Amino acid sequence: xxxxxxxxxxxxxxxxxxxxxxxxxxxxxxxxxxxxxxxxxxxxxxxxxxxxxxxxxxxxxxxxxxxxxxxxxxxxxxxxxxxxxxxxxxxxxxxxxxxxxxxxxxxxxxxxxxxxxxxxxxxxxxxxxxxxxxxxxxxxxxxxxxxxxxxxxxxxxxxxxxxxxxxxxxxxxxxxxxxxxxxxxxxxxxxxxxxxxxxxxxxxxxxxxxxxxxxxxxxxxxxxxxxxxxxxxxxxxxxxxxxxxxxxxxxxxxxxxxxxxxxxxxxxxxxxxxxxxxxxxxxxxxxxxxxxxxxxxxxxxxxxxxxxxxxxxxxxxxxxxxxxxxxxxxxxxxxxxxxxxxxxxxxxxxxxxxxxxxxxxxxxxxxxxxxxxxxx
Length: 376
What we know:
Elements: H1 3-11, E1 21-22, H2 28-34, H3 47-58, E2 63-66, E3 78-85, E4 91-99, E5 102-110, E6 117-120, H4 126-137, H5 148-157, E7 162-166, H6 171-178, H7 182-192, H8 194-216, E8 223-227, H9 231-242, H10 244-256, E9 260-265, H11 273-278, E10 283-286, H12 297-304, E11 309-315, H13 316-321, H14 325-339, E12 345-350, H15 359-372
Parallel strand pairs: 1-12, 2-7, 7-8, 8-9, 9-10, 10-11, 11-12
Antiparallel strand pairs: 3-4, 4-5, 5-6
Helix pairs in contact: 2-3, 6-7, 8-10, 12-14, 14-15
């Protein structure tokens, strides 16, 4: 099988020729492989292209991502941006949005090796800023946004990887990223401003659905990818209220178009699985082991192997970053024995491969999967 066919067979909960193997490449390792800083992806090189080159470099299976591009609509607001770079190469970016209702300001800190962190959120006061924020976030009609990058991704990837269209599916993560004070302040908002946030959540869900339709009715991607990774922060009850509704709405679109819905759920995940499956999710990664997560791969396979494609869960830090080649091989064998029976399994690292991970450990993961993952 080709890497793409192998991965799609596993996504469909069937048995490919061997277990697909993907050391989870997002931006850090692709940056090292192609010699670019991750913060400059998209401005200098599309991230999907760096991911694809990394997949080809290590001879593994994998998936790549692209988002809808810029809108052909004229923006309703004006943007000012100022960047200051330290001698160590860390950039601090201040961005001011001039909306029809007033100004919003955010500051981010971006080191060379990562996508950065928010120092100052856009939304300082919910009552004063929520309308301004909505004007910025929902400005572009998804149907006016460019699909050229997705088309290039599909054409240039061919059979070497699965192509995803990425859509924002996690309302809480979106709000926490915009909120000054981050996740802690955002959790309080769910109680203190629940009525206003319900309205914003409904609009967010409608926007995610339109993004999904705007992709699937114009581009032949293999799957839609979304984020579902907030159970550790929210707990099961709030998670069901503030994360699941958008995922469920998006899944109705993916099922209509017969493509997979793939979500990323790191940290503790077990209490979210029934809700995610009921919402229509097809593929879940990366099922982190304790202490970072709570997933026992054998138990996940036993309980959910007929309902979802399971992706996981070589430890990114303890094994790939700090372990020996023997450690990697041992864990690969254990994961394959735990979850591969009958198909529907992708051997992945438990979240993104970390900075400075030895390339020989990544190669060992791939080679061991080829050796021990043969279904025949």
